[in-house]
Amino acid sequence: MDPRSAYVHIPFCHRRCFYCDFPVVPLGDKADGASSGSVAAYLELLHRDIAASPGGPPLATVYLGGGTPSMLSSAQVAAILEALERRFGLAPGAELSLELDPASFDQARLAGYLAAGINRVSLGGQSFDDGVLADLGRRHRGADLREAAGWLGLAQRRGDLASWSLDLIQGLPSQNVAHWDDQLSAALALEPPHLSVYDLSIEPGTVFERRLALGELALPPEDLAADLMDLTWSRLTAAGYGHYEVSNYALPGHASRHNRVYWSGAGWWGFGMGATGAPRGRRRAHPRTRAGYAEALAARAEEPADAEGMPFDERLMVGLRCREGVNLERLARQENLKASQLEGLRQRLATYEQRGLLRIEGPRWRLADPEGLALSNGVLRELLAWWQEQEPLPAPAP
């Protein structure tokens, strides 16, 4: 079944938070995404990515995450939504979500996002404690978070915003039960219709990982971490929030439809640097760097548009010349090949696969970059010889 959801990655941030391992591009505290040449160049790639997708039914959910999507102007956000609508269409009542950072927008900017079509917001608060926010590497402070949440609450009461979520992190260094209880009280006072409460995770390559290795990070012991989780559940369920996923709580009617797509196992499109998608049940991730993302899009564009009309062996060889490779199962179905024939091909190329030069990832076969591509001629010769064995050569003309 074709996906009805799309995730769009906006990698730009003012700075990288100390716990973050997402594919992001820090631009500096004073950067303005609306006028940045780096942002404009990335958005050109993103629009190319969307336009080159195979398309499908109208999207029921769209999620613009990051990074800090609120570094974009409302016009840039509107252009992304318009590109998705041109390629897929947007279903009536579609949930269109945008992640906002409290230090990167004001009421006027929020109004522009809502006018562009955004109807759900995820506010990355993490904490109300100024000291904790500084230790996390965040730009905003507690006052900024309260002010931003107030704007969202007002927009919702006016009917301009369907729903919004507040993100918090529990299990932070030196956190205790009393401190976390105060954080939950501050959150509940803002009356967010949805709360996402994440456990701190120490990821490889982050500032927090280095600090932990140096003994500079005092994480809560396991029994305290369990107490914090119990307190979260008790406070939020008592306030009327349903605990509909490990880290997510929502008032009735405010669960994230887009997040449910991930957890249900349904497919979704992924657009942008580092974005992961699972169209038709096959998980696939874009490269995590801008250069890698650009190369992947260029490789996709190199495949001739009329490749479907080529003979099987030509389509196979053309596909394997690209870094992205070829969906061999799809080609085999079109040619009515048997599974035993494909297995014979795999055995013939076993040496290349064992050496790591040929990668077989589900239905997709590709040559490893760069070693496999450098030896592609040998692989292609084997493919041609195999194909000639499958089908007799045509009789010579009289």
Summarize this structure as a short list of keywords or feature phrases.
398 residues; alpha/beta; Transcription Regulator spoIIAA; Arc Repressor Mutant, subunit A; 2 domains; 9-stranded mixed β-sheet; 16 helices; 16 strands; 43% helix; globular; disordered C terminus
Descriptive account of the structure:
It is built from 16 helices and 16 strands. It has about 400 residues and is of the alpha/beta class. The strands form 4 sheets. A 9-stranded mixed β-sheet has the order 9-10-8-7-6-5-4-1-11, sandwiched between helices. A 3-stranded antiparallel β-sheet has the order 14-16-15. Strands 2-3 form a two-stranded parallel ribbon. α1 runs parallel beside α2.
Topology:
Layout lengths: L4 E6 L1 E2 L11 E2 L10 H16 L6 E8 L7 H14 L2 E11 L6 H10 L3 E7 L3 H7 L5 H16 L5 E8 L6 H13 L4 E6 L7 H7 L8 H17 L3 E4 L2 E3 L6 H8 L4 E3 L4 E2 L6 E2 L4 H13 L9 H9 L5 E2 H8 L3 H10 L1 H5 L3 E4 L2 E4 L3 H4 L1 H15 L8
Parallel strand pairs: 1-4, 1-11, 2-3, 4-5, 5-6, 6-7, 7-8
Antiparallel strand pairs: 8-10, 9-10, 12-13, 14-16, 15-16
Helix pairs in contact: 1-2, 1-10, 2-3, 6-8, 11-16
Shape: globular
User: Count of helices?
Assistant: 16
Residue ranges: pLDDT <50 for 5 or more in a row?
A: 304-310, 392-398
Separation of the first and last Cα atoms? 49 Å
> Structural class, please?
alpha/beta
The top-level CATH class of the largest domain is Alpha Beta
Largest sheet: 9 strands, mixed
Record the strand order, biggest sheet: 9-10-8-7-6-5-4-1-11
How many structural domains?
A: 2
Whole-angstrom Rg: 25 Å
The residue-averaged pLDDT reads: 88
- Please state the second-level CATH architecture of the largest domain: 2-Layer Sandwich
The total strand number stands at 16
Strand content is 15-25%
Overall helicity: 40-55%
Would you tell me which CATH topology of the largest domain applies?
Transcription Regulator spoIIAA
